[in-house]
Amino acid sequence: MIKVEWFYWLCGLIFLGVAALTVGDRSNPKRYGSAAFWGLLGVSFGYGTFVVHKTAPAWPLGIGVLVMAALVGTRQLSRGTAGGPDDAQRRAGADRFGSLLFVPALVIPAVAVLFAAVLVKVRIGATPLLEAGSETLIGLGVAAIVAVAVGLVMLRPTAAAGGVLAPMREGRRLLEAIGWAAVLPQMLATLGQLFTAAGVGTAVGTVTNHVLPHGSLIGGVVVYCLGMALFTIIMGNAFAAFPIMTAAIGWPILIQQFHGNPAAVFAIGMLAGFCGTLCTPMAANFNLVPAALLEMRSKYGPIKAQIPTAIPLLLCNMALMYVFAFGVVG
Predict the structure, then answer these.
(1) Whose CB has fewer CB within 10 Å in the chain, the N or C terminal residue?
(2) What is the pLDDT of residues 123-151, one digit of tens each?
(3) pTM of the model
(4) Which residues are 127's β-sheet partners?
(5) To which H or E segment does residue 297 belong?
(6) How far apart are CA 313 and CA 321, in angstroms?
(7) Contact 101/94 with Cβ under 8 angstroms?
(8) Transmembrane stretches, by residue range (predicted)?
C-alpha cells in the first residue's frame, strides 16, 4: 500500500535540503536564520508522523512553531543572490523550448486524474493500492515527482545550473522569494480548527441573535455573507470561516428558521467568503505569493487590483442568495 505519509516525509526532506543549501549560501546575509526556519519546517513533517501515531508528544512541534514565528518576527529570513538563471538564460530557454515548457506542468493534472479515476480502484489481494482517504494527495504527490523527472529529461540542466539538483536549487530560490508566507495556509487551517473547537461559532450566533431583527430574512442573508467575507479576511481561508459562520447563522437561522435551500445557501456563502479572499494578505498563496514571484513593486498589488471587484461581487452574492435560496423567484 502506498501511504500518504511517505510524501510528507519527502516534503520534509526537501525542506531540509533547502536548509542545507541555504547554510552554504554566503550571499544570503541571514543564512543561519533562514536555514533554521526551513530546517524546523522539514523536521516537523517527519516528527508529525510520530505525533499522529501517538508515539511522541506534540509539544515539541508547538515549540518549533513558536521558534519559527520568532525567526519571522525578528526578521531572520532573507534571500541569497547566488545561483539561478539570469534573464538572458531564461529568454534563451524560452526561445528554445517554447510551449513545451508547459509539458511538466500539464503532467501533474494528467497523473493526478489517472490516480483518482483508475488507480484508486486497484487492489493487491485484499489491500488497496492507495491508502484509503488519501488517494487524491497520493496522486498529487506522485504527479509532482513524475513532473520533475519529465522536466529533467526535457531540459537537461547543465552542471552550472545544478544538474539533477537544479529542481532543489530552483525550489530554494522560490521559497526564499515567497518567504514565511509559504507556511501560512497550514497555520491558518490550524487556526480555523482552534476557532471551531473554542466555540467561536456559537458565540457569534449568540451575539447575532441579540442584534439581528427577529424574522428579518434579508438581515440574516447580509450578516451571513458579510460574516463569511470578514472571517475569511481575518483567517485567510473561506473553508476555515465556513464552519464558524454556518454554526452561527447559516444553519440555525437561514436553514432552520427561514427554510432556505441548503445547497444554495452554503454554496453562495462560500462564494461570499471567497470575496474576502480577494481582499486579504492572510490568503498568502493567492495574494502575496504571486506578487513575490512576479517581483511586483508592491506586495499588496494583487489585493489593490482585486478590491474593486470583490465588493460588488459580495453584493451580488447577497442578492443571489436572497432571491434563489429562499424561493423568492421560481
Answers:
(1) C
(2) 888 888 888 888 889 999 999 999 999 99
(3) 0.76
(4) 124
(5) none
(6) 12
(7) yes
(8) 6-23, 35-52, 58-77, 97-117, 137-156, 177-199, 211-231, 238-258, 264-289, 310-329
DSSP assignment letter at 213: P
pLDDT tens sequence across 38-86: 999 999 999 999 998 899 999 999 999 999 999 999 999 988 876 666 6
Closest Cα to residue 150, out of 167, 138, 137?
167
pLDDT band at 297 (very low <50, low <70, confident <90, very high): confident
- How many C-beta atoms surround the C-beta of residue 226 within 10 A? 17
Cα(40)–Cα(277) distance, integer angstroms: 28
Alpha carbon distance 301, 278 (integer Å): 11
Cβ burial 309-323 (10 Å sphere, 16+ → b, else e)? ebeebbeebbebbbe
The C-alpha R_g of the chain, in whole angstroms, comes to 23
Q: What digits encode the pLDDT tens for the residues 3-36?
A: 999 999 999 999 999 999 999 888 889 999 999 9
CA distance 21 to 174: 13
- φ, ψ of residue 297 in degrees (nearest 5): -65, -40
Is 80 exceeded by the pLDDT of residue 193?
no
Give the Cα separation of 255 and 72 in Å (integer): 43
Write down the H helix ranges in the chain: 5-23, 31-52, 59-73, 87-97, 103-117, 135-155, 166-178, 184-197, 200-211, 217-235, 238-245, 262-277, 284-293, 301-324
Residue entry with cell 508547538: 62
Q: Report the phi/psi class of residue 209: left, alpha or beta, with left for phi > 0 and alpha for psi in -120 to 50.
A: alpha
